[in-house]
Amino acid sequence: MDRIRISGGNQLNGVIPISGAKNAALPLMIASLLTSDTLTLENVPHLADVEQLMRILGNHGVDIAVNGRRERQEEGYSRTINFTCRTIVDTTAPYELVSKMRASFWVIGPLLAREGRARVSLPGGCAIGTRPVDLFLDGLQALGANLEVDGGYVTATAPQGGLVGARYVFPKVSVGATHVMLMAATLAKGTTVIENAAREPEIVDLAKCLTAMGARISGAGTSTITVEGVTSLSGARHRVLPDRIETGTYAMAVAMAGGDVVLEGTEAALLDNALETLRMAGAEITETETGLRVVRNGNGIQPVDVTTEPFPGFPTDLQAQFMALMTRSSGVSNITETIFENRFMHVQELARLGARISLSGQTARVEGVPRLRGAPVMATDLRASVSLVIAGLAAEGETMVNRVYHLDRGFERLEEKLNRCGAVVERVSD
Ligand SMILES: CC(=O)N[C@H]1[C@@H](OP(=O)(O)OP(=O)(O)OC[C@H]2O[C@@H](n3ccc(=O)[nH]c3=O)[C@H](O)[C@@H]2O)O[C@H](CO)[C@@H](O)[C@@H]1O
Ligand SMILES: C=C(OP(=O)(O)O)C(=O)O
What we know:
The structure is a single chain. By secondary structure, the chain is of the alpha/beta class. It contains 14 helices and 24 strands. The chain folds into two domains: 3-18 and 242-428, Enolpyruvate transferase domain (UDP-n-acetylglucosamine1-carboxyvinyl-transferase, Chain), CATH 3.65.10.10; 22-239, UDP-n-acetylglucosamine1-carboxyvinyl-transferase, Chain (Alpha-beta prism). The protein is 30% helix and 26% strand. It has a four-stranded mixed beta sheet. Strands 2-15-17-16 form a four-stranded mixed beta sheet, covered by helices on one side. A four-stranded mixed beta sheet has the order 4-5-3-14, covered by helices on one side. Helix 4 (108-115) packs parallel to helix 6. The chain starts with a strand and ends with a strand.
């Protein structure tokens, strides 16, 4: 099992290219199930989750051609990929494939919309909470689907003649359930109005791609999305938007280690709130022609309180990284997690490096310390893993992060990107 060794203490200076967003690429890939034509996606990040979803889509009958050809492109770089699902050959998404990642459950929407039936295993994904699927089931039921949960599988059947548009109000904001409702509604009869929809940029990206495929959608990016159903969708070409979580992660790494880095190919609007928080913590962030420039030279790290919220609030996917940064602040910061009930597993690992953090319910009180010291630590989930890398960059001596397969789910060429800016990060294969 691979591990990552970090020799801390170096500033970061240079350019870090930002990859396509994992959390946009996954639903976009799933949207290829909605059409018998080719969906071409550009800037698809080369990540373990993307590879896993390709296996799942392949099982349903999607023909996948990387970079328009069948041979692999250069290892580790974002790619252009053609997805073609002439016919859906299997409407079952089996446990062996789906249990590895949360987003694979989302195939339920397109399968149901195009084939009228789906049998999908309950999902897996990062162990950051119970992560139920009740909102997906309620929403699809509102479109007329009949649903049964048995033996770890959800079996969904559309009424005779297909799904029927309806008004549905989500009782709670869910990114995944909004993606699924959006995809299912594109081929439903009549109009669907989704209220209390998630407003994340990845929802907007999916809506743009579906629109290019012929769907009729308005309001994506607001809490009310309206979809006029169409009888079929066509192929399209779409570029995956930049990864805002990767952007925020590297911005926090620079704030932690100090230095001057341009994050290339990204946009400030994707993570407004998080950038403002980072500025309050002492980083200078400016927009450049190619992306964002993040600088912290000389001034220390200020404590800032943060509460995670659905977009446009501070993202839960940056909470662990921000906590790592706050371990070195000059005071006390309170970090409250409101999205997932078990997303503090990095706390005990950060403590191994000398961080002072106490937990009270959903709030972590982080008391900044003058120095962290390298130690062996264990990655527990995707964003927790990278928070340990950020802490390791500023820790004295060597930090060894175990179980880095979590990192490979969501960070493309992490070691290379950091090392090019002066970090000393090495992958160790046993
Ligand atoms: C692949 C992907 O895009 N993953 C992201 C997505 O996850 P995901 O789509 O799983 O997250 P949701 O927005 O659905 O979850 C938000 C909250 O709603 C709850 N919930 C969700 C569905 C449901 O049926 N019932 C229910 O109670 C969840 O347990 C959680 O407490 O959004 C999260 C919140 O921004 C991010 O952390 C994840 O990185
Ligand atoms: C929690 C995440 O992913 P998933 O929803 O796939 O578990 C994440 O991307 O941080």
